[in-house]
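Re: weekly structure request thread

Next one in the queue (173 aa):
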Amino acid sequence: MRQKIKIPRIVKIEKITGHKIQCMFNNGESRLLDFEKIFTQWSVKENDFEYPLLDEKEFKKVKLRNYTLSWANIKIKVKAKNGESLIMPYEIGADVLFELSEEIKEPSKYRYGKLIKSARLKAGLTQEQLAIKSGTTRFYISRIENDKTDLEMSTFRKIVEAGLGKKLKLTIE
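Done, posted below.
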């Protein structure tokens, strides 16, 4: 089983609506950042770096840079280790963003657990029988069916082809 990636990173900005940004993080989760709530929580005032982002037009200029959200339209002056002043785009660390975000549950059509459970029941197999046929455990099959664990493609193939006796077909649209 894969290890959980400990450092959150944003790998894709999926959608921007108003002051809400839907992002995909490196753990595969889609998460929602509601900046109306965040800016209220932070009590953003006129002299704060974030203040221009209250304007939706400025807010929507967000880009993905170094696996985090970055606004090149908002400039920040920072001091380098050598004492030199640098002008940088305004960014919020992905670890902070992850903590401030809410998980978006994927629609059931994207969940492989339901597919496996449905196929297992159609085949008349128990979780234990499927586990034995596919070389896993009943506990692991249960976690997969309840979308409580990640699943590597090789394991998915093993469950579908060896356990269920079906062919795995994957399409990307």
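The chain is about 30% helix and 25% strand. The two ends are 27 Å apart (CA to CA).
Next request, please.
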